[in-house]
Protein 1
Amino acid sequence: MTASDLEQFAAWIEELIRRRGYDIDSPRGGGKSRLADEAGVHRAAITRLLQRQSMPDLETTRRLAHVLDVPVRDMLIRSGRLTEDDLPLPRVAAASPADAGERRMTLEEAAAGLGVPADQREMFIKVAGQFLSASPVRRESLAKD
């Protein structure tokens, strides 16, 4: 990690924190404390990051990602700790799996690849599944329901 990595990451996360509604600019805004409390991390870790003094450890990064609703993958890549090559996304199947000789990605795989939080994956799968064309057998069972 270089000083440039820390500067770029801190600037990105600072903007993200503001967009998520945390008041980190006014001395008494309480945004740093609120963010630290919601993430379950020390306020000092937030302060050190925003002052470009140090990069958060892996657990703090994971907790911040969850609270800020950002995939951990994005946080690790933006921090400069890992690259996109280190954390490749699952391959997306061709429009027709038969044409490509591959199987179609499951909704569970799509949710994981998109960084959908575990507690929201069931809802994602239910909603996304409604957009997939049903097979003839499946259409018949839907008509009976």
Note: The CA atoms of residues 111 and 121 lie 6 Å apart.
Protein 2
Amino acid sequence: MSSIRLFIDEDSMDQRFIKALRARGVDVITVAEVETISSSDKEQLILATELQRVFYTFNVGDFCQLHSIYIEEKRIHAGIIISSQDYSIGEQMRRVLNLMANKSAENMVNQLIFLSAYADEI
């Protein structure tokens, strides 16, 4: 089973969050690093899937809709994690690590996961 590799959306790419994840060995890239900031949500999800990376975002509405379209059209994406902007950097990081301890990249295919389901464990 492969570890989840993340592709962080423009709205979620706080550098403190990225550094905290990388310091814990998480494979992370951002839309800024691949220079796709101006791309549509659809294009971002396509790229994340091509790169075999789970997309991480705060954008509930658009990505829930995209996920539904993918399922309806029997298309495949590498997974979507939706987080809350209300979480601190540390809380986001701990919840992501908890999710990663419980799911593999293979388990994430075509999954829409709300980070709220992964309690902030201390």
Note: The radius of gyration is 13 Å.
Protein 3
Amino acid sequence: MLSQRWCCIVNDYAGRMTTLILTVAGADRPGLVAAVADVVDAHGGNWENSSLAELAGTFAGVIEVSVAPERAEELERALRGLQGQGLLTLAVLTGTPAEDAPDQVLEIQVLGNDRPGIVREVSGVLSAHDLSIEELATETRDAAMAGGRLFEASVVARVPASVDLDALRRDLERIATEVQVDITLA
């Protein structure tokens, strides 16, 4: 059985609401989202943002929930109760989310023949330049005309004001040549 993991990061915004960030991954089956949504609603929570997907039979996602501070612990306990029903395995880590910075957002598209190491190479360049990946979506598919497999990635990254964009572009161009992919920046 694939382990499913929930990570709750609790933050109190001026005493008004607490934000829980939930992450989950595990065997997909009908009713998982409904079970979580029912618990969130039953404890006065508000499902704010989420990104959920099924990949190769595995359900995975991240969910942002807000709840009154006095109900956050109760909601967290109820979410843990889902694992007792066989729906989820729950692990809770507590921390504080990063502060929103007035950074620039960069969109990066990658397309080329699939091969091992593309994500490692591209993410390594982004990390070396202190970019933070906000979203990453990848896909492989059959290359209809050429045969083989195509790899495609879409990346949204935060770029701190201190980053040398020309140096970043040069490093991404170097990686594109090395791994033989097209990289487009927007």
Note: The helical segments are 32-42, 69-84, 118-128, 165-179.
Protein 4
Amino acid sequence: MPKPADPTPDFFGYADLLGDAERAELAAIRDHLEQEIKPLADAAWARAEFPFEAVEKIAAINPAGYTYPEFGDGRERGALFSGFLTLELNRVDPSLGVFCGVHTGLAMGSIHGGGSDEQRERWLPDMAAMRTIGAFALTEPEGGSDVAGGMRTTARREGDTWVLDGAKRWIGNGTFADLVVVWARDTADGHVKGFVVPKDTPGFTATKIEGKIALRTVQNADITLDGVRVPEADRLQRIDGFRDTAAILARTRGGVAWQALAVAVRAYELARAYAVDRTQFGRPIGAFQLVQDLLVKMLGNVTAMFGMTVRLAQLTEAGRGTAEQAALAKAFTTARMRECVAWARELFGGNGIVLEYEIAKFFADAEALYSFEGTREMNTLIVGKAVTGHSAFV
């Protein structure tokens, strides 16, 4: 029997754009994730519980420090390295990848981009070390895609205190985060503002959303804010409108594209390994034309996704990345990811619906990635406006 070719999903060698030291560092991170975190993650997904024992092990790879080196170990890695790091973490477990994305990208990103120097120094060092965990509360029960104009959570100023009232939904990390960045509309000027709310603040209640079929480890919460009092010192001082919020989301959408790539990569890896090992009709199923067709279609998607995410990282690092490019990357990669996990599940046959073969978890998780950080339709309208000059938003 001929020896299988190189199984790497990075068929065009995009990782070669990194330096030798960076590739070695990523290889060490992959080993750590596989050995120390994957067993915890797989068991937690099946139970729909969060593996708190994994937080210290995740902190050991310093994901926040790579993004904000001034609050980490001080070593600058760059957007491309950060993208490949996101790939490695989500390739092992998308739920823990989302946990890190919410904490590092959304919560820390809000404070880093919207906070004063004093606020950055007060919160970010402990968050970078994962001694303090953050969440990001934007989506509401009646406001998802239209939350920019339809936000119902209000902030009313009383002297040096703000009073928050309203509700939020689908808040990742929301059941246990130490700090939650809450977005609310100022009743005086109508502008959206950001507030950092500790979890033990009176009037703040977080309830776990049960019964999810995707990203089961992520502890999404329904949050109610009933007269929550926040000092002016905890209002993000450089946020004064939804445009500032949207800028944070634009930065994190590039990370979601890498998450989608990671899920497609893992689906391909699992499908290819199964095709080589699984025997039917006296030969490996990978020797059949229809199976090879599925694998090649998956590999084509993965390769296209690599090209888009890598280029977006390069543009971002050069200061030339745009919100419209991030929107296109998110919309495109999540759609191609969805195709890949469906083809992979098809290749596994009946075995594809049980957790023993792992692909079922990625098949389910893909549905959440496809929808959050802006649906495909919303991101399409962002790009459509850029290419036509006409807004099609309602």
Note: The chain has a mean pLDDT of 91.
